[in-house]
Write a structure and sequence with these properties.
It is a single chain. It is built from three helices and no strands. By secondary structure, it is mostly helical. The protein folds into two domains: 37 residues, no CATH class; 28 residues. The protein is elongated and about 55 Å long. The model has no long low-confidence stretch (mean pLDDT 89).
């Protein structure tokens, strides 16, 4: 069996590949790494008294990071 290059696969392709090859632990690990890299931290909770300020600050930071 030839070595599969997971880095060339889109997220959708990698997900489909690992679902069709459940025995391929490397594919599963590659998928988990991608998921962790794209996870978003919790900014605030609904009952936080500074909810609005924290949300607005997070929005400004994202806009600044993405050059908008």
């Amino acid at each position: 069996m030839s070595q599969v290059d997971y880095t060339t696969m889109s997220d959708k392709e990698l997900r489909e590949y690992f679902l069709n090859h459940l025995e391929d632990q490397a594919a599963f690990q590659a998928y988990l790494v991608r998921r962790r890299e794209r996870s978003h931290p919790v900014i605030t909770k609904v009952d936080d008294p500074d909810f609005d300020d924290k949300i607005q600050t997070a929005i400004r930071q994202q806009l600044a990071e993405h050059g908008s």
